[in-house]
Amino acid sequence: MQAIVKRKRQPEAEITEVDLPNIEGRQILVETKMASICGTDVHIWDWNEWAQNRIRTVPLTMGHEFAGKVVEIGEDVTSLQVGDMVSAETHIADGTCYQCRTDRMHICRNMKILGVDTDGVFAEYAILPEENAWKNSLELDSVIASIQEPLGNAVQTALPRDHIEDIVGKSVAVLGCGPIGLMAIAVLDEIGAGRIFATGGGRNKVRMELAKKMGADLVLNAREEGGNIIKTLRDATDGNGVDVVLEMSGAPSAVRQAFEILTPGGRVSLLGLFDKPVEFDLNNSVIFKAATVYGISGRRMFQTWYQVKGLLSSPTFKSKISQIITHRIPIRDVAEGMKAIHSRQAGKVVLEPKWN
Amino acid sequence: MQAIVKRKRQPEAEITEVDLPNIEGRQILVETKMASICGTDVHIWDWNEWAQNRIRTVPLTMGHEFAGKVVEIGEDVTSLQVGDMVSAETHIADGTCYQCRTDRMHICRNMKILGVDTDGVFAEYAILPEENAWKNSLELDSVIASIQEPLGNAVQTALPRDHIEDIVGKSVAVLGCGPIGLMAIAVLDEIGAGRIFATGGGRNKVRMELAKKMGADLVLNAREEGGNIIKTLRDATDGNGVDVVLEMSGAPSAVRQAFEILTPGGRVSLLGLFDKPVEFDLNNSVIFKAATVYGISGRRMFQTWYQVKGLLSSPTFKSKISQIITHRIPIRDVAEGMKAIHSRQAGKVVLEPKWN
Amino acid sequence: MQAIVKRKRQPEAEITEVDLPNIEGRQILVETKMASICGTDVHIWDWNEWAQNRIRTVPLTMGHEFAGKVVEIGEDVTSLQVGDMVSAETHIADGTCYQCRTDRMHICRNMKILGVDTDGVFAEYAILPEENAWKNSLELDSVIASIQEPLGNAVQTALPRDHIEDIVGKSVAVLGCGPIGLMAIAVLDEIGAGRIFATGGGRNKVRMELAKKMGADLVLNAREEGGNIIKTLRDATDGNGVDVVLEMSGAPSAVRQAFEILTPGGRVSLLGLFDKPVEFDLNNSVIFKAATVYGISGRRMFQTWYQVKGLLSSPTFKSKISQIITHRIPIRDVAEGMKAIHSRQAGKVVLEPKWN
Amino acid sequence: MQAIVKRKRQPEAEITEVDLPNIEGRQILVETKMASICGTDVHIWDWNEWAQNRIRTVPLTMGHEFAGKVVEIGEDVTSLQVGDMVSAETHIADGTCYQCRTDRMHICRNMKILGVDTDGVFAEYAILPEENAWKNSLELDSVIASIQEPLGNAVQTALPRDHIEDIVGKSVAVLGCGPIGLMAIAVLDEIGAGRIFATGGGRNKVRMELAKKMGADLVLNAREEGGNIIKTLRDATDGNGVDVVLEMSGAPSAVRQAFEILTPGGRVSLLGLFDKPVEFDLNNSVIFKAATVYGISGRRMFQTWYQVKGLLSSPTFKSKISQIITHRIPIRDVAEGMKAIHSRQAGKVVLEPKWN
After folding, report:
1. How far apart are CA D147 and CA A167, in angstroms?
2. Which of C25, C27, C46, D324 has a Cα at 20 to 30 A from C195?
3. pLDDT digits (tens, 9 = 90+) for B223-266
4. Measured between alpha carbons, how far is B197 from C266 in angstroms, rounded to an integer?
């Protein structure tokens, strides 16, 4: 079968012929119907420092966001059958470590990640453990189905634990309008946030316009507004500051801003990754503010998937999310997709299984 | 000034002249701009058994749901000024009891209730303690402003504590389509419930149609469907049962149904009051189901008010809620309002301050 | 090997020779070092109505509470090795149902229970799925190790979710002093409850004395005190009522009492099972009280096991728990153990693997 | 009456005669029976940079930790009477700001602090608003009564919100063994922490020994152990890392350590204040670790007071806490008390009302 394979420890990857995998036990074989490019795939494609350290073995079939059709099931599989449509939860957990056994499977100590530690889904067929398969409704469009995992990340950032009272009717700022930031805005709007503020780097007009469409009440250009942002958001919240900040940019200036605009006793979720250590006034940012800070990594398995499913049952929400997909291209043109993402003029890029 | 006063311990009340009240300390004087009839007012008007036991002193000016304009403030008032528009949180808490001092002021041990224990708002002017005044935006229509308190009850039933992960993307059933049940449906729709099911007694077509308009995906006639409801809701939830049930009917059959349709580990909020004790299979309803049950009384002060304010910032939501108000009549016709509610063909009835 | 086997659908069971089981995949073979009798075992032994309905197939090897040594592991086992000491989480979950995938594995929809649905541990050797094995410290005495599962139930009743602020420094009443009730008292004392009240049926002096030893500040004889209990507990809590009630008796009078002694906004955990439906004043018990009620079934996997492990690291706590074990007898005398439990003069009965 | 008064904006303070204050409305007059020195008092005494910026008006009577007897009550006081023994919650909240109205009164936007913004308790008599008085049991020793406020801080650091499942049976590290750190160890031991680790600067042998007495399983000398601490704590937790870290030192090295020793998905509470901004690897410390971080400021009003009261009902706990009080001196020797604290050889210093 055809697959996008990183053969050497260097940039880019090849479209090449590989063996059709054999399945056993609780594994399933899935025919890829649609795939989607994640930031992680871009890092691996670019072979940046992170990828060089993180990728242990090549050759490696890339990709983990997808939707496909079950074409074969292992002898111990009980919850799926041939013909089912599925997507993949990328995190393959061991099920027995401390984290797995205390409802934190998404941060398993012996985690393997699809398309990073094991062969991924940018291929005609992919193997999934039954435990990692998420059964889609047959009516769900495969394009939307292929981006449920990052949508789950957006949900996890908005709702990191079992309490979101701090969202309903409250003011929320989303710092950073990349694809997951945009998804988060749509999620916040759908789950009853009172006012949604968004900030973006400003170079990417496409994304700033999308932020508005996703439901942001106010979209601020971080580059142009600079320090005014703090005053603007205070004024917009009766001087209280915002109740919740979702930091999705990875910009050191944004994380400092996050705490300045926060109301005392408010909450910050950190999803964006930073290039280097950040200097931080813990006294005024966190301690005197009695702030709560959540680090966001992955998404709860499978609480967030059920939430995504429920949210997607709203046609308005689904239609909004669709707008984040700016590129739909044949998988053979994956290099074009990478280029579009680098240009920062793209939202989400999905890949159709057209190999020839 | 004019007021609707219960003078004698018997049904109905008089529209009569009373003295304009004097204020002091942290009190404010408010000119009533709009009032709304609550079920409690109906009980007092009817002078039913509950009212006979509950009302300690007459004469009593009735009413507690309202919106008005501050016309005078006491010398110790700091957070309000003349000209402000306010509504009232009805529960006057003592601030020093065990419940007040542990974030449960809404169930204060020495609670007084406006229009029940103290003179209420069905009058040209009303006194409020500063602590009970909720400042409205000047732009908020007084009709909507006057029904924020029951809307807070709907929010409290949906979100009884600081976690509502069980709503976002989840399936929720609302049993009973009275005004607060209808409001709850609108709230659930606004805060991202995946699927909303509603059941109503069936005699009241107006309410069943309103349930649909509020956002219910499926409205079932409890009278006609009977036992089928359980099967219907199981089928509609992939056999899992619903995640959350809001019991807002006070019907013994509904409370039993609530637990039958509930998914294991799910949650039930009980708001509807029952005419008498209910027989209950605790083993299968609650224990084996690992269910969580919340009794709902009042609404958190003032968490729910901020949530209501935030939700009302959505024009769609506000417009939906407006539809629940089926009658807007002069306050001098309060007896007509009571009649409309008794007929069960009314949603919410609001009273304009037209006394002559 | 020898085993206690229910061969026929009738009372009692036989000690008999059965085949040594074969293991595969993720299974392990464990040599029983100590077992303990649970109330469920008594029901199956007695062949009461519940057991007749619940037990699907015979012959069935009984028992699920135990400690043993791993003597063989399947080829896919990664987290255990031969020589490890283990106990069993009895609930064998499917891992893919809605409940399993939303952190509620302990109420899996397709649950199988060891010694109920599959052959149990009252045998020389027992099979466990790796997922259900709990690795014990080599220093942990096998007697204590064998009763960790019911101890987990006690923890789950005290701490049904991720918040127990209602325990630390607060007043808690435990209604019913059976083995799990006694364990709960010890747990409450260990986790900082302010005052612990216990009530017992009164016929069992042994248990009432144990309640005192476990850390109850006040032990009341439900039979003799009757209605005075409510007054006594109100007086003992400055008139506030108790913050938390753990209902562990299954007595209808106790469940009504539970809500009468509860402070408004307090919490009730229901563990005890009732012989029949209970009549219940929902208005005053739950709704006006703004009470929270948790049904307790099983124990969270494996959060409660880690908690039990941590609690047992305190020598005082471990020594207290040991006192609940009133009988330690050879497994060949299991019939004597059943008799002792029926007499209500026993705490916990453990079985040593002495077959001949 | 006599009082310790900062008359000029410079170091130290005078013992001097001032007028007996007049009370009105909801105020009470309290005769000081015992006071205690807080770190804040030391800053004000020293007149360090923080104090120079924070103190708005002199003359100012110092002090806020105390126990005393009510000798007069204002005409609107309802919950107290002459002869009651009280302590003070130092935070005087306005009751109407956003934070006060959403169960976060301890971080009121218009907070005034006793002995900082208003005249304090290092005097023969002090004024308290009724809302800030905490009624002590008549049996409670005034020495213990006078340190309930910092004890409440320790509780708040351990239990910042309504969920502490992460304490019961879990491993907890306390970084820093000042008075509140020591109190936190005692609290953790009392509320069922599985294993308690403590680290201290090492110069203060008194405190390191106290840490052991408070219940720490392992006390590490941060100075001598250095980087070994991380390895030691990993080994002591089966390689998992600790579940909870309470940072109570304000040392930049400690805060970095806090996150290194933390298990993925664990929790850090930050109480210690830092001299300057800290450089922070947010990716590995917080985000990939899916950590939760709480800033701790004050203590919840009055949830923590009830908890403290309940904990102090255990004689063992009370006796442990007493050991933290290393100095009991006449208030006229307050300068000696300040010296003892500067020496770092003191635990808590209490002041008896001996003025002459």
Report:
1. 37
2. D324
3. 888 779 999 999 999 999 999 999 999 999 999 999 999 999 99
4. 30
Identify residue C352 by its one-letter amino acid code: E
143-162 of B, contacting C, C-beta below 8 A: 160-161
Tell whether the torsion through CA atoms of A53, A59, A64 and A70 is positive or negative: negative
* Rg over CA atoms, chain A: 20
Cβ–Cβ contact B163 with D under 8 A: no
**What is the least distance, in Å, from the CA of B192 to any CA of chain A?**
4
pLDDT digits (tens, 9 = 90+) for C285-299: 999 999 999 999 999
CB burial of D188-217 (b: ≥16 within 10 Å; e: otherwise) equals bbbbbbbbbbbbbbeebeebbebbeebbbb
Nearest to A302 by CA among A91, A58, A55: A91
Check if C96 contacts A (Cβ < 8 Å): yes
**Residue C78 three-state SS:** coil
Measured distance CA(D21)–CA(C304) in Å, rounded? 55
Cα atoms found within 13 Å of the Cα of residue D19, Cβ hemisphere only: 4
> Which helix (H) or strand (E) covers residue C338, if one does?
helix C334-342
Q: Which residues of B participate in catalysis according to the annotation?
A: 40, 43
pLDDT tens digits, B143-197: 999 999 999 999 999 998 865 567 999 999 999 999 999 999 999 999 999 999 9
Tokens at B160, concatenated = 């009884």
The percentage of residues in chain D with a pLDDT greater than 90, rounded to a whole number, is: 93
- pLDDT average, residue stretch B302-308: 95
What's the one-letter identity of residue D90? T
Lowest mean pLDDT among A154-168, A180-194, C65-79: A154-168
Asked if B39 reaches chain C (Cβ–Cβ under 8 Å), the answer is no
The per-residue b/e assignment along C114-124, b for 16 or more CB within 10 angstroms, e otherwise, is bbbbbbbbbbb
In three state form, how does the secondary structure of B239-307 look? CCCEEEEEECCCCHHHHHHHHHCEEEEEEEEECCCCCCCEEECHHHHHHCCCCEEEECCCCCCCHHHHH
CB contact under 8 A, D277 and A278: no
Q: How far apart are CA A92 and CA A75, in angstroms?
A: 20
Q: Which of B166, B187, B194 sits opposite A311 (nearest CB)?
A: B194
Question: B263: closest CA among B298, B288, B280?
Answer: B288
CA dist., res. B176 & res. B246, Å (int): 9
Q: Which two tokens stand for residue A219?
A: 């979209």
Compute the distance between CA of residue D200 and CA of residue D222 in angstroms, rounded to an integer.
6
Question: Is the CA virtual torsion D112, D115, D118, D124 positive or negative?
Answer: positive
> How far is Cα C286 from Cα B35, in angstroms, rounded to an integer?
30
Question: Can you list the domains of chain A with their CATH numbers?
Answer: 2-147+324-352 (3.90.180.10), 153-295 (3.40.50.720)
Q: From the list C79, C95, C303, which residue is nearest A102 (CB)?
A: C303
CA-to-CA distance for D199 and A143, rounded, in angstroms? 53
DSSP state of D25: T
Q: Is the pLDDT of residue D164 over 60?
A: no
What is the rounded distance in angstroms from the CA atom of residue C271 to the CA atom of residue C39? 13
Contacts of D343 (CB under 8 A, 6+ apart): none
The CA distance from B142 to B132, in Å, is 18
Report d(CA B182, CA C55) in Å as an integer: 45
B-chain residues near A306 (CB < 8 A)? 169-170
Coil, strand or helix: which one is A300?
Answer: coil
CA gap C248, C179 in Å, rounded = 10
Cβ–Cβ gap D161/C162 under 8 Å:
no
- Which residues of chain A have a CB within 8 Å of the CB of B313? 169, 194-195
* Residue numbers of C annotated as active site: 40, 43
